[in-house]
Design a protein that fits this description.
about 80 residues; two-stranded antiparallel sheet; alpha+beta
Length: about 80
């Protein structure tokens, strides 16, 4: 399934308040990130990649704002800014 359609399918199951959260922005604090890869492994849509010992946001437009990365990051290096 094409990424855009997959995202729309998932989003169609969200409440109105969740739709508003799509205005968020993904931020990785490079000073806190230890490159463990937790964010990349828990992200259902591949927003992150690892490189040079750090996580990088590479597909921010695909973010579902589920905040799995933010809640699971052991270093608190990820923030979804709304």
């Amino acid at each position: 399934m094409l990424p855009v359609f997959r995202k729309l399918l998932i989003l169609s199951q969200r409440c109105a308040v969740c739709w508003l959260s799509l205005l968020g922005k993904v931020n990785v604090d490079a000073k806190k990130c230890n490159g463990c890869g937790t964010c990349a492994s828990v992200c259902p849509v591949g927003v992150y990649e690892l490189g040079e010992g750090k996580a990088f946001v590479v597909n921010e437009d695909e973010c579902l704002v589920c905040k799995a990365c933010e809640t699971r990051c052991p270093e608190g290096a990820i923030a979804i800014l709304e």
